[in-house]
Amino acid sequence: ETGVTQSPTHLIKTRGQQVTLRCSSQSGHNTVSWYQQALGQGPQFIFQYYREEENGRGNFPPRFSGLQFPNYSSELNVNALELDDSALYLCASSLGRGTGSLSGNTIYFGEGSWLTVV
Amino acid sequence: AQSVAQPEDQVNVAEGNPLTVKCTYSVSGNPYLFWYVQYPNRGLQFLLKYITGDNLVKGSYGFEAEFNKSQTSFHLKKPSALVSDSALYFCAVAKYNFNKFYFGSGTKLNVKP
Fold this sequence. Notes:
The complex is a heterodimer.
Chain A lengths: L4 E3 L2 E4 L5 E6 L6 E7 L6 E7 L2 E5 L6 E5 L5 E5 L8 E8 L13 E2 L3 E5 L1
Parallel strand pairs in A: 2-11
Antiparallel strand pairs in A: 1-3, 3-8, 4-5, 4-9, 5-6, 7-8, 9-10, 9-11
Chain B lengths: L2 E3 L4 E5 L4 E3 L2 E3 L4 E8 L5 E7 L5 E3 L5 E5 L4 E6 L8 E9 L6 E2 L3 E6 L1
């Protein structure tokens, strides 16, 4: 158990719809990162939030957006869903900004949310 | 640009034999290197990391990895494989003050009884 919880675990959406995925970070962690893992591939960085502000973004279009709340939980929103958005979405929780104070075992991943777009 | 390569999609090994899962990286500056394991339909579990110091890093479940700067490699090893080690293994690199991991494409480890 990493203390990082994601919901929902599985969902099916229709192309063009919108989806919101949620992540509760581990207690005390103020940084949340989101990754997309397509089938058969490694996770790809979407964006990171540190103390409620975006702290870096990967190569994803603007229809991928996020929020971080005062309790450091986070949401990933995807608008205008496309078939290629079907993937496992992983949330990672950590303490501190960037990797300057990084020690890998403080970066905890949730179990992920499986999104299928039909 | 930062990148990670895992040249083997799959590694097969008999239980009790040593295993190696390969990883090479490309990053400007000093790298932070990690190995994660993913069991079916699960998230990523941390195995070990290299930040600085001793090139041989020991991690969870008897795994270890050796950082080789000249070969830009960070291969994962275990002296004696278990059937329960069968899973998907990901190598990842992060750059100091960079805020994200770059993951490899993963290597499926099959340990046969």
